[in-house]
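OP here, attaching both records as promised.
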Amino acid sequence: MTYATLKYEVEDRVLTLTLNRPEQLNAFTVEMANELVAAFERASEDDAVDAVIVTGEGRAFCAGMDLSTGGNVFGLDEDQSPTLADLHERLDDPAIFDGVRDTGGRVTLAIFNCKKPVIAAINGPAVGIGATMTLAMDIRMASDKARIGFVFGRIGIVLEACSSWFLPRIVGVQQAMEWIYTADILDAQEALRGRLVRSVHAPDALMADARALAHRFIDGKSPVATAMARQMLLRNSAQTHPLEAHRIDSLAMFYASVGDGKEGVAAFLEKRTPDFKGVASKMPPFFDEWVSGRGSSS
């Protein structure tokens, strides 16, 4: 598969997904949105990939939506008058999917659903969707050249890409409110103080440090257990009662104990490196029902 706006490069089980419109500072387009969704869906099922790093080609991460396109620059169909019911009842209807749904949100939902750990290596400016797409990623590492801005208020639009769900969970409601209201551009140290990013790195060390962290996540680990842990943390932390987490913990522990868990215990007792055979493309039998919401009691 080839991409017009991305690079998809796998080395030693780590996928580097590079936003690749450097002359436009990797500005976001509908085409890029569709390619990012496809790339994350591909990576999620690709057993050659155990972790994903997202970065930008050239000096920017992503300068936000490309505002130079004609018509509705967000790719939306202005002939429609969508209702809340439409977004509940017709979410995947082509008219709603293509003409109404926020493209950034489709990307962050694909990242949310991915079975692999995802690291953002923010190498330069990350503005608008360039900032909000990283919120669905597990870890944000920033170059000291990074500049991050939730600048929606400056152009009269609202936060998108499901960021009203992600951002308060990462930095807290008060900090999220301040950054959205002010629409300030944050330097890397301010983003670090606000706990938006994990760490700040020299520009020439950022990718090596991101790859090293990715390998800490995946080396000697069960891909199935990692995929389960990612989804459990993302989904169970939003439940209203810990009993819902208990239901999933119980099923996950049961299937782990008869799967890679047997090898993990044996390796521990024999003082050797485990040889896990599970792959994330073959998850426990309850997994698809759970993540689709079909098995939810809430």
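Record two, same layout:
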Amino acid sequence: MARQTFWKGYLKLSLVTASVSLTPATTESNKVRFHVLNRQTKNRVESRYVDSVTHKPVADRDQVKGFPRGEDDYVILEDEEIEEVGLESTRTIDIESFVPRGSIDWVWYDKPHFLAPEDKVGVEAFCVIREAMKANDVVGIARLVLYRRERAVLLEPQGKGIVLWTLRYGDEVREPSAEIDDKAKVDSKLLTLMKRLVKEETKDWSPTMVQDPIQKQLKSIIRNKQKSLKKAAPAKKPAPVKSTGNVINIMDALKKSLTAEGGRKSR
């Protein structure tokens, strides 16, 4: 199955820029999904916002975001006010800094995406950024608007490409609920038996180890209840982002970047 690009923009490191595209590394397209229907008419049931007191539907133009500060008391924020605090550019992955590879704990990792050059012009710039990260054994940190939210992202070289991970926000990661007693002793005989058991149960990794049996059974039920399924109309592809081309020679851009960096440090 061909991967569907859902984001196009630019990867930028100082003055070096490459036109790139993002593709989710995981998919839920094979997951069984249901619509809520009216049992009598078989029509789909709509979800609407209604006033909690009058129980009347609220039009989109009358819906506004409010932060609770007391009982029935809210601080109102307009959409324009919320948008003002976001990134100015939503189509540029501007690498702000680098950190040693492996220094970020797994709990911060959220969703993986495949990052790839979008055209032949950007391949050289993309590859030199990737290889420079590999040579220094680092990963890049940037910010990007994805899934309608501004997110911190991590760029990690993988093979011929780069994997972009969205990172969790600081207030989303909890401290460990309990510490392990590092002074607790392990019975040597129990450990020997456990090591033997682990060795006997060790197998080569296979995706079949993480199949969802519930989904498999649901699909079987659906196949038995319906003789044929109508295919849904394919989703419209997003309009391609016009490439500005790699106007600046990469070597010149790198020299200018290093000169500018050296000037800042000498101040």
